[in-house]
Amino acid sequence: MATPVANSPARTSAPPAKDRRGFLAIVLGALVAIVPFASGLAVFLDPLRRNGRGGRFVRVTGSDAVPADGIPREFPVVTERVDAWNRSVEPIGAVYLRRTSEDSAPECWSATCPHAGCFVAYDGETNSFKCPCHNSTFTVEGQVIEPSPSPRNMDTLECRMQGDEILVKFENFYTGKAEKIVKQ
């Protein structure tokens, strides 16, 4: 029986250390490349991930601010804007709200004239809305009074009550068009 020699190399099935280091370098290199790429892709696609600012319900006022007397009242639409790391509260438009009875839900119109985008004003003497830019005139229900340069009635907005608050689905529409088309 032969005895093993003390200085003879032992046979093992492990791969050489050089192959393991090469594999580890490839894995670490891939991780180093993937992390910045994924971060950049997330930043690039961020606007697609977020909901648009228009078309969401925004608190406008409390229900006690709109009495049931049928007179339209103007309210600013204020929302939070996020720009990179900055957050600010800014007005984004205005609406007219009106209630005709205590049981009725508020009616809501955009304060922007559908003709050229100026803000309309409520005239209490004539009980109508008037645009100061080109003399478009609307009834208290938002209907065009002819002759008027406005191509359509005042833009109605979806409005709902949530507890004692009035929420409006605020949207901007293209002006100068006969169809009511939401700006994206």
Structure in words:
- This protein has one helix and nine strands.
- With about 180 residues, the protein is α+β, with helices and mostly antiparallel strands.
- It has a three-stranded antiparallel sheet, with no helix packed on it.
- The chain is elongated.
- About 15% of the residues are buried.
- The mean pLDDT is about 85.
Summarize the structure.
The chain has one helix and nine strands.
SSE blueprint:
Blueprint: H1 17-49, E1 56-62, E2 73-83, E3 86-98, E4 107-110, E5 121-123, E6 128-130, E7 137-139, E8 159-162, E9 165-170
CATH architecture of the largest domain: 3-layer Sandwich
State the low-pLDDT regions, or none. none
What structural class do you assign from the helix and strand content? alpha+beta
Overall pLDDT, averaged?
A: 83
User: How far do the termini sit from each other?
Assistant: 89 Å
Supply Rg: 33 Å
Strand content: 25-35%
| Strand order in the largest sheet | 1-9-8
Given the structure, what is the number of helices? Answer: 1
Shape: elongated
Largest beta-sheet characterization: 3 strands, antiparallel
Number of strands: 9
Features of the shown structure:
single chain; 184 residues; alpha+beta; Rieske Iron-sulfur Protein; 18% helix; elongated
